[in-house]
Amino acid sequence: xxxxxxxxxxxxxxxxxxxxxxxxxxxxxxxxxxxxxxxxxxxxxxxxxxxxxxxxxxxxxxxxxxxxxxxxxxxxxxxxxxxxxxxxxxxxxxxxxxxxxxxxxxxxxxxxxxxxxxxxxxxxxxxxxxxxxxxxxxxxxxxxxxxxxxxxxxxxxxxxxxxxxxxxxxxxxxxxxxxxxxxxxxxxxxxxxxxxxxxxxxxxxxxxxxxxxxxxxxxxxxxxxxxxxxxxxxxxxxxxxxxxxxxxxxxxxxxxxxx
Length: 259
What we know:
This protein has 259 residues and is an alpha/beta fold. The protein has a single domain (5-112, 179-258), classed as Alpha/Beta hydrolase fold, catalytic domain (Rossmann fold), CATH 3.40.50. It has helices at residues 19-25, 52-70, 80-91, 114-119, 124-130, 134-143, 148-160, 162-173, 182-185, 207-217, 231-234, 236-258; strands spanning 5-8, 32-33, 73-78, 96-102, 194-199, 221-224. The chain has a 6-stranded parallel beta sheet, sandwiched between helices. Helix 10 (207-217) links the parallel strand 5 (194-199) and strand 6. Helix 1 (19-25) crosses helix 12 (236-258) and helix 6 runs antiparallel to helix 7 (148-160). The protein starts with a strand and ends with a helix.
């Protein structure tokens, strides 16, 4: 696994969501980068605009730094991190050795889940956030099978408040996860070494959605059994096996090309 791994978390998460997978992969701190999206762990930098394009630019700058030091990265994204990973890989394919997305993909004409549609409406989204106390979020995440230790972290972040504004910024800039224009157009430029993974019990996006997306764009797909939206933490061993297959195949291909 020569390439640096680059993990992008989603909503309402932080880099800690990757810990079970990182342990399963036996990665050291030198092997990977897992930045926190601005405004999720703490207030974003002054002047940062919390929209999908600003988050993509932030991540591209981070990937560029890794690329300059260590070459193309193995990109992995979950939830909104998956959407951002697809955007990055399509915009800057030269920075990416492989990419994998979990429980998140987009295409023209697709529509987000109910919460996404509500958060995506200005005014309505703000009201919904104000009417969603930490205890309600806790119940919703437990019902969605997020691992309990991850639930506690997400609820703590919710109480701090910064993450709510960041979530609203993402969803409102994406119009509740309805897609058109440049974000859709760059999907045609995705690097060929890609993989779509999906927890079969995802309550926010059915596994059929992920499978149909993979078939449409011509990438391999793998369903993770006994897992839902947070398959990366629910079944890290199964998830790791699929990533290792992808990375090992890239190693073999590149080694063969160099001999």
